[in-house]
Design brief:
The structure holds two protein chains of two kinds.
Chain A: H1 18-21, E1 26-27, E2 33-37, E3 55-56, E4 76-85, E5 93-101, H2 121-130, H3 143-146, E6 157-161, H4 171-178, H5 180-194, E7 198-204, H6 208-218, E8 224-229, H7 238-246, E9 261-265, H8 266-278, E10 284-290, E11 298-303, H9 308-314, E12 325-326, E13 329-330, E14 337-338, E15 352-354, H10 375-379, H11 386-394, H12 398-403, H13 414-418, H14 425-493, H15 499-548, H16 554-577, H17 579-587
Parallel strand pairs in A: 1-11, 6-7, 6-9, 7-8, 10-15
Antiparallel strand pairs in A: 2-5, 3-4, 4-5, 10-11, 13-14, 13-15
Chain B: E1 2-3, H1 17-27, H2 29-39, H3 42-64, H4 69-73, H5 77-88, H6 95-111, H7 123-134, H8 136-139, H9 155-161, H10 173-179, H11 185-191, H12 203-219, H13 226-241, H14 254-258, H15 263-270, H16 281-301, H17 308-325
Helix pairs in contact in B: 1-5, 1-12, 2-12, 3-5, 3-6, 5-6, 5-7, 6-7, 7-17, 12-15, 13-15, 13-16, 16-17
The chains are: A alpha/beta, B mainly alpha.
Chain lengths: ~600, ~350
């Protein structure tokens, strides 16, 4: 038996898992319409490969492979490809493929591997990508991207996350109880691809039935070990789980693979098994519907793309009407994201829909002054000093924030949970992280601009110097020639060079050279003036476009304003370039 | 239908600032009861006057600063400040002394610095030190403990005119210890009945009562053990190191220091004030130890009989410095950067 380690901090919020883990797993009704957002994962979205009106079969890939693809969860027709509300923290709409289901549920033939152990590693990884598999624990990182491409970069330890430390959620709990065998299949495939020799399956001790089922399923498999540890939030965080199971910490700014560890969620393992052994891409998942508002909370096997409203209705949850505001949370009470619209579809990462009663999640009072009690520092799983971070965040002291390792905050919310003054700490950190990111991008932009400007200056100077050198050479050659001629002339007439004549010739040559230089400066001035005119014209045009803009799209308006500003800056630069050569000319 | 769009986390624990403050107030009860038993109900008059003054000053300051008055009064923080200061004042202190101290604590030490959470110094101790420096006669005149006094002081008379007659006041054990350098401890103890068993008659029990209240707060996780334990250990270590059993110049035994004066009250109710102390647990260890050493040094070598207030204020100065050097090691960062 391995030793279980502990991590710093953590909290014990009310678990409330009993609300949803007692009813059996239900299959959600197939909706009339499925809405499939193109971006359901971290990374760029793929491009649609179907057109409106096309008939599609279940399991058919609807996009190309430029990003993580999405698949038709059932048969039907593509009824629209358009922007719809999507479940994202921004609350913005996103491009979606909409399928009108025909209810026949006809499926195409899927690729599958008879014996994955004989298959090529690259082939399997490509298959996982083509099956649209993203991490199902919450973040939605494309699974194929985490896997090593070759033998040399094998990852010795595979950690399977069955922790589910967020209160309320029981989707993984139910999955482990009902589909332990499939999880083990998927784990074997993942271990095969990653070249892992030891497999640790971590489960919190508040899921005795899941633990029993998983123990049964791994029996006889030497490499796999079920590790049970005390319930504490956020032990399911990747970094925390790694510390619990191995006692090691992922280096700040690094990845688990730096320690030779790969982390995958139990739900992801099932999706991998389905894709590799049964040729079924990721088109459904288990979602918990819970909270005190739904009358029949529980877990549902639901098709990706099902509108949340329909799933909520099946759980007996009517959203409040009128002025009463309620939260519809995708995920748990600690890290979940509120939905702006109940028409948002279930996506690959929707592990839970939580609709709490008005005062279910604790007091929602106004924030009071921080009394620096330090409960937050006690609770922080990253050993940060949240009260200091709060202080610096309010002061917008980015330097101090980075010094206090703001970047290592995992936004688990433990600090806010324990804060007696009800301060929205995580929100402060998120805003500060965004501000720092923005500042960095801005710094990088201006640094690039500076380098470009300096490079250009150098180029111009170099060109001018080269020109000057050439001219001087020419002049010298001409003068030498003239001197030769003069001396030969003089030699012809007087037999020796007249020093006075030679001096006059040299002075003449010098004057000529100076006039040349002036002409050159004039040329540069003319060039700068021409450029100035050009920039002025461009600015005029940019201003006209901005004036013509109706302001319907704030992004476009902002871009136009930005364009005008940059052109103005360029104009100033061009203006600065003009008078300098002119002044030189005057002096000359 | 309307959906609330807010960012995570959505859940919040049951702890609130008002609740923390209420727990602290409750925890002073055993100590206050012991004070009343040994030194008469004088401390209750202090508390009453102090509470009224504190609430009035807090309301005034909030109003002047244009902050919500009622909501903030409800956080009990002004009451806690007043309570801690009034416990520290001598029982039967004249009423104006209490009013002056409490209003200085609330108006100057707290609100002039920005109110709750922004004061760099412990407000109660600032008030105490202001009074101690300005009115040393009133501030050092402690009523004799119950079993040693001939008669109890007349409450109302004391309240309005101060304790005038020597019959009911007596030097505290700490005072006696400081002023007598050239005797044998045994002689000193024999000559002054105030010394009691360990820390002085009455004082021992008062200290134990505050210890009990403090342990209860620890159990309720209102603060961590680091600062109090560090202070008590540092104080005991100093006292052990410099203790010579025979001579009164040695400054007294470790037990005498732990159970005398404001030691336990300071350790569990004063230095645990989160606002003005160090923030990390390691920082609190340093903070507490610094106070322990300072308390010993000032008690034995300083000009004042007790030292908690001065020690706390000096350590408050040092808190940001301590914080700078005691940042905890963040998850995933190298151990070498620990300092």
């Amino acid at each position: 038996m391995r030793r279980i380690h502990d991590f710093h901090g953590g909290i014990y919020p009310p678990e409330r898992k009993g609300l949803s883990n007692t009813p059996p797993l239900r299959k959600a009704r197939m909706p009339e319409e499925l809405v499939l957002p193109l971006a359901q994962h971290i990374g760029p979205p793929a491009k649609p490969q179907v057109a409106v009106g096309d008939r599609v079969l279940g399991g058919q890939r609807l996009t190309d492979l430029s990003g993580l693809p999405v698949h038709a969860p059932t048969s039907g027709h593509v009824s629209a490809i358009e922007e719809r509300p999507v479940p994202h923290a921004s609350g913005l709409r996103g491009p979606c493929i909409v399928i009108a289901c025909d209810g026949l549920d006809e499926w195409g033939e899927g690729d599958r591997f008879e014996d994955f152990r004989k298959a090529d590693r690259g082939e399997l990884i490509a298959h996982l990508h083509a099956s649209g598999i993203a991490g199902m624990g919450g973040a939605g990182f494309p699974t194929a991207r985490k896997l090593p491409r070759d033998e040399a970069s094998s990852i010795p330890t595979l950690i399977i996350n069955g922790t589910e430390c967020e209160p309320y959620i029981t989707a993984d709990d139910i999955l482990m109880r009902e589909r332990a065998a499939q999880i083990v299949e998927g784990v074997e495939i993942l271990a095969h691809i990653a070249g892992s020799r030891e497999i640790l399956i971590g489960i919190e001790d508040n899921k005795p039935e899941a633990i029993a089922a998983m123990r049964e399923a791994v029996r006889g498999r030497e490499a796999m070990e079920i590790m049970v540890f005390p319930t504490k939030y956020p032990s399911g965080g990747e970094k925390q789980l790694i510390e619990i199971l191995t006692g090691r910490q992922v280096p700040s700014g690094g990845l688990p693979s730096d320690l030779g560890i790969l982390c995958q969620n139990v739900g992801t393992a099932v999706a991998v098994a389905d894709a590799v052994l049964r040729g079924r891409p990721l088109v459904s998942r288990i979602t918990t519907v819970t909270g005190e508002t739904p009358q029949r909370p529980g877990n549902f096997e639901v098709l990706i793309g099902t509108p949340m409203r329909q799933l909520l209705a099946e759980a007996g949850c009517s959203l409040p009407t009128g002025s009463e505001a309620r939260r519809l949370i995708m995920g748990g009470p600690m890290m979940g994201v509120t939905m702006p619209d109940a028409d948002c579809p279930i996506v690959k990462t929707t592990n839970c829909l939580l609709v709490p009663a008005a005062d279910e999640l604790g007091n929602d009072q106004t924030a009071q002054a921080c009394i620096r009690c330090g409960h937050c520092a006690e609770a922080c799983p990253a050993s940060l000093l949240p009260q200091q971070l709060y202080w610096y965040a309010r002061a917008r002291d980015h330097e101090r924030l980075e010094e206090h390792h703001l970047a290592d905050c995992i936004e688990c919310g433990a600090c806010s949970f324990v804060c007696p003054s009800n301060i929205p700490l995580v929100q402060y950190y998120r805003a500060s992280k965004a501000a720092i990111r923005e500042q960095r991008a801005e710094d990088a932009r201006s640094e690039r601009a500076r380098q470009r400007f300096e490079a250009r200056q150098q180029r111009i100077e170099r060109a001018a110097a080269e020109k000057e050198a050439k001219r001087a050479k020419r002049k010298r050659a001409a003068m030498a020639k003239a001197a030769d001629k003069a001396s030969s002339d003089a030699g012809g007439s007087a037999g020796e060079a007249d020093p006075i004549q030679a001096a006059i010739a040299r002075a003449k040559a010098r004057r000529a050279a100076q006039a040349d230089g002036a002409a050159d400066a004039e040329g540069a001035a003319a060039e700068a003036a021409a450029k100035l005119a050009k920039v002025e014209a461009r600015l005029e045009k940019a201003r006209a476009t901005l004036a013509a803009d109706d302001g319907s799209d704030p992004a476009i308006s902002a871009a136009l304003r930005k364009a005008v500003e940059t052109t103005e800056a360029k104009l100033a630069e061009a203006r600065a370039a003009v008078p300098a050569p002119v002044a030189e000319t005057e002096q000359a | 239908m309307s959906l609330l769009v807010v960012t995570s986390p959505h859940a919040h624990g049951p702890m609130s600032t008002a609740r923390v403050m209420r727990l602290v107030l409750l925890a002073t009860l055993p100590g206050v009861a012991a004070l009343v038993y040994y030194f008469g109900p004088g401390v209750l008059f202090n508390l009453l006057i102090g509470a009224v003054t504190a609430l009035a000053c807090e309301a005034l300051a909030l109003r002047l600063r244009q902050r919500p008055v009622l909501g903030t009064l409800g956080d009990y923080s002004a009451l806690v400040t007043a309570t801690l200061l009034c416990i520290a004042l001598p029982p039967y202190a004249p009423w104006w002394l209490v009013v002056l101290g409490v209003s200085f604590s609330i108006l100057v030490a707290k609100h002039l610095y920005g109110g709750l959470g922004y004061n760099p110094f412990n407000p109660a101790m600032v008030g105490y030190v202001v009074l101690l420096i300005s009115f040393p006669v009133y501030m050092t005149r402690w009523v004799a403990p119950r079993s040693l006094a001939d008669s109890a002081p007349n409450g109302s008379e004391a309240l309005f005119s101060g304790l005038g007659f020597d019959a009911v006041t007596m030097a505290t054990p700490l005072d006696l210890m400081r002023r007598n350098d050239s005797q044998l401890l045994a002689d000193l103890y024999a000559a002054n009945p105030q010394f009691g068993f360990f820390g002085g008659v009455g004082w021992e029990v008062v200290n134990l009562a505050f210890l009990a209240g403090g342990l209860w707060l620890l159990y309720r996780r209102v603060f961590t053990w680091h600062a109090p334990v560090a202070m008590l250990v540092a104080l005991a270590l100093c006292a052990t190191l410099f203790y010579a059993e025979g001579s009164s110049a040695s400054g007294g035994s470790p037990l005498f220091h732990l159970l005398s004066g404001a030691t336990m009250f300071g350790a569990f109710f004063i230095i645990t004030d989160p606002v003005s102390s160090a923030v990390s647990n390691r920082g609190r260890l340093v903070f507490g130890a610094l106070i322990g050493v300072l308390v010993y040094a000032i008690r034995v070598r300083g000009q004042y009989p007790d030292a908690v207030a001065f020690a706390v204020l000096i350590a408050n100065f040092a808190a940001p410095f301590i914080d700078h050097y005691t940042q905890p090691r963040v998850y995933g960062t190298a151990r070498s950067r620990e300092s």
